[in-house]
Amino acid sequence: MLETLQNLGLGFQVALAPGVLWYGFIGCLVGTLVGVLPGVGPLAGISLLLPVTYGLDATRALVMLAGIYYGAMYGGSTTSILMRIPGEAASVMTCIDGYAMARKGRAGPALTIAAVGSYVAGTVSVIALMFLAPPLATFALRFGPPEYFSLLLLGLLVLAYMNSGSMLKGLAMAALGLLLGMIGIDQMSGYFRFAYGVAELGDGIGVVPVAVGLFGLAEILLTAGQPNPPEVIRPRLRDLLPSRREWREANAPIWRGTVIGFLIGIIPGSAHVISTFVSYAIERKVSRRPEEFGRGAVAGVAGPESANNAATSGAFVPMLALGVPGVPVAALLLAAMMVHGVTPGPLLIQQDPRLFWGFIASMYVGNVILLILNLPLVGLFVNLLRVPYPVMYPIILVCSILGVYAVNSSVVDVWIMLGTGVLGYLLRKLDFETAPIVLGLVLAPMMELSLRQALAMSAGHYAIFVTRPISLTLLAVGALLVALALRPLISRTLDWRSRLPAET
Amino acid sequence: MTVDRVAGVALVVIGLVAVWESRAFPLGTLHRPGPAYMPLLLALLLIVFGIAVFAMGGGARRLLEVGWPEWRHAAAIFAACAFAAFGLDRLGYRLTMAVVVGLLLLGLERRGWALGLGLTVAMAWGSFYLFDTLLRVPLPRGPFGL
Q: Is A223 in Cβ contact with B46 (below 8 Å)?
């Protein structure tokens, strides 16, 4: 404990040095501005700006990249709340209630709560990261293909169970998303599935075009031609900050989201995407006013935003402790380390403690910088809502098309965005939720690969899923959820007495 | 006919199409799944869900109650976006976006000429400068260098 605190002191010496602090600030600022661009998420932001760091030393480069990442995540939340366009899969849940809050004139509070929730979650999870990185990394290594499959299946069941609407319709949308995720090259056999000769579909359907289409474009198609277009919002100064009631409503979801996000984030793989969906589902389930979700519930913004930020720190656990990239962004950061001559791995903490602890401390400092930087910007962002909707939506469309195209420089992605935009428009007309489609799309490749790898490990025996303790536990929780969901149906069927006509 | 029944039918149709298309790949076995295994499983699951949604959809909102007051606008916006997708590689980014924004602001929303033209130029050339020049994201240039 004392040694960790001493090392942290060393880290803060590094992170707070004027030269390093300056690059952290630049990273946060640039990351926020890039992340605000619709369709450009944190991964795209880091990819675009990685070459800028080549001329810097390793510490400054990593601090700047981490700042870009945090900044892009917050910027992505801004477009989710103001325009209902998610920059990445993890921002999808913020779109739902964040945008609804904005349309009710509460954009400032939504942005503020997102910023504060991200700060709290990021700070707490960095502290947890410091003390828990080695043992948590060891636990994370015990996750193999059977555990991944069970976890992802559980994630889908949790989402469906906690869906306030029909569980059946939620599962149907998740199945549709999973089926869409089957498009592309099969990783085990190399078969080109459902691509119909379109080479760009080899890597499958991208999450960004689908998310932008289902949420951003669909919203424009639904809203632009309404007889009564959305009112222009002219926020007053006192409307920029949350009320006391909103702070109270955000408090518990922020802490819950932090814990959920961090625990899920430490698991290598894109499982951290589940954290925002699970957080949203839990908040809706425990809320005293679940009917508010989808209509501007504060908890619907606070929980997922905190979970997203905490999962980010959790995702750095395997990267820092073991040199294993748990998520694509961590892979980019590892690549940046190698470009600067740093060898990532379990010995990094001993070989270069200044870099290791400086990076940890810079994550904390970055959270503070973002809070200081973005709270004043809330007023600027909210003023975008003064623009009349008939003028705003063409701008949003251009940014969306550009953001989607920029990911892979592919027109196919733009067509995918169009197709899913129409799909989202029709689904909302038919009273279906579209968020499960995005989750299914993200999880499908991992689920299939995990299933087939697990069967390969066990020579085809399905018992592997129940003989490994972690997998068995996850499946048991999933079975419990299904049983709980079916309990009302079973009770109604068995309670035949209540359906007998009254005796005369 | 209710919205759930329409959706249920649509889900069944999608599932059937996926089942049909999955014939092209090896199914494998239960213990060694092939590339068609998971798609077929999901397609069958989708069909089951579609039938269930249809069966339980009698109490849902009636299809005729769904209003479509915005459909013409939506169709025009979709057409503009389709033009953008079609024209990006052929006409170049700036010209394509200028046409799209101009059509939407001036043709569909009937905004003033000054605002419409100003925004058209600003969005098309401004976004090109930001992404192509500053962020070094290559954007397509058409036959006229636009």
A: no
